[in-house]
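Email to the structure team, subject: Olfactory receptor model.

Hi all, the expression group asked for a predicted structure before they design truncation constructs. Nothing fancy, just the tokens so they can compare against earlier work. One-line instruction: predict Olfactory receptor, return tokens.
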Amino acid sequence: MSVVVSPHVTTLNHTGVSHTVFRLLGIPGLENQHMWISIPFFISYIIALVGNSLLIIVILTKSSLHEPMYLFLCMLAGADIVLSTCTVPQALAIFWFHAGEISLDRCIAQFFIIHCTFISESGILLVMAFDRYIAICYPLRYTAILTYTLIGKIGVSIFLRSYCTIFPIIFLLKRLTFCQNNIIPHTFCEHIGLAKYACNDIRVNIWYGLFVIIMTVVLDALLIFVSYVLILQAVFHMSSQEARQKALNTCGSHVCIIILFYGPAVFTTLTQRFGRHIPPHIHILLANVCILVPPMLNPIIYGIKTKHIREQAIHMFSQKQE
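Reply from the structure team: attached below.
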């Protein structure tokens, strides 16, 4: 999820015209390459859709995987499907059919779902870190602490947090008059990317958007860091080398996914803030990497690195062949 925090404030314009239809260009400057660019987009989407759907089916149908760690992973896979489906088909429609026209309401709805899902994924990664902390630091109390009731409440809390923080942005956008350009050089709609075409003062949008990011994604990243500091302290106090290695292995997949999720997002934000000489199409491609790569690789990483999921998936397919 890309965030632009430069203090771009538009001046008032009293033309009385407010655009209700916008046009997404895709990746500006690379229009002639759209057909080739669509290939990795399409492949990534299919892998994300199939991989995450398979992960959900395996976890929900195998009772041996009804543990907190796998249930949180199931939530993450569901969020990945929503995030991919909300963005990639729109991009493919632009690349293949030049179908970039989008209404203001649909644009706001798309940004709302993207931002809500992104913040939800950040929250899920945080509770997965908490899950690993409990499993390693309090193994005997693990199932007593993380009950199904608590897991359900955590899931609802993650959704409500993302919904409540993003919902006010709808009103912040609805109050604006879009009397400037209605051409959006992107593959999907985002908050500031849309707000900058308004004739109104958008400082409230900029500062609230920054507040949301700091209080959700940035805070989650800091708490995840603290969790892993505590986990590492507990691991290095273990007397057995074998127990130490086993504890670190249980965190391996989660650490990979954390890097995949936060890495591109941080890099994209930094390039937008400080890379003023970087071509616009690079910014757009990086923003799409944040959407494409984690949903595609998350099920692959957990499928390869988690023995129980791999075994259950193989067992499920072998039963179908029989």
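The first helix runs from residue 34 to 61. The domain at 21-316 is CATH 1.20.1070.10 (Rhopdopsin 7-helix transmembrane proteins). Ping us if the truncation boundaries need rechecking.
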